[in-house]
Structures are given as structure tokens and as C-alpha cells.
Amino acid sequence: MLAVSRDEESLMTDCLRTPDDRFRDLPSYGFVSRCQDARGAAISRLVRDGWKHAWNGQSFMAVGVVGPVIGAPPMRELARVIRGCPPPLELTGVGHFVEEWGERVVSPALESFAAG
Hints:
Elements: H1 6-16, H2 26-29, H3 41-54, E1 62-64, H4 72-81, E2 89-91, H5 102-115
Parallel strand pairs: 1-2
């Protein structure tokens, strides 16, 4: 369990609020905090920029569409950020732990890597 101080909790809450005081949905949150000084935001921006500009390898993404934490919409957004990443394989009826559905992922992944 991650221990978060009251100040950090307040900062995170402020970074996730919209102007009308509702919380942002994760897809619109975009994986990188919109609050420039949020804990970890600078590192997240560096990683995002690395995937976008420096990555030159192959990639494949499989996504469980019923994932309670991160579903298909933000993962589609992430795939668009990763240079050369094809659209994710979306697995219906699958939640967060895609690795438990390896049989449904292996063939499409191998085909994707073979196609280059």
C-alpha cells in the first residue's frame, strides 16, 4: 500500500479536478498529470516523450476492455503515443490481468511481430 501524505493527497486531488469541480475520467487524464508539479509528473512526461520520439522497436498491446482500472480508451490513447505501435488487440470479457488470457494473445502478437 502506497502511503500518501495529506499534502500529496491534496495535490493529486487538485490535479484531477475539472474546472466545474468534477473528477476527470482516466481517458481524459491522459496518463500524464496536467498538474506540472504533481509527484512523478516530470518522470511520466520523460517516459511519454521517449515512447513517442526515441522508441524504434516493435510493439504489441493487448487490452482487456472490461478492466476496472484502465480500460480500452486510455490504452488506445497510449498506443497512439508509442511510436509505431499498432492499435491494441481488444479482448472482450477480459479485465485488467490480460496475461491470464495468453492463449488469445499469443497468435495475434506473433503475427504482428512477424509482419514487422
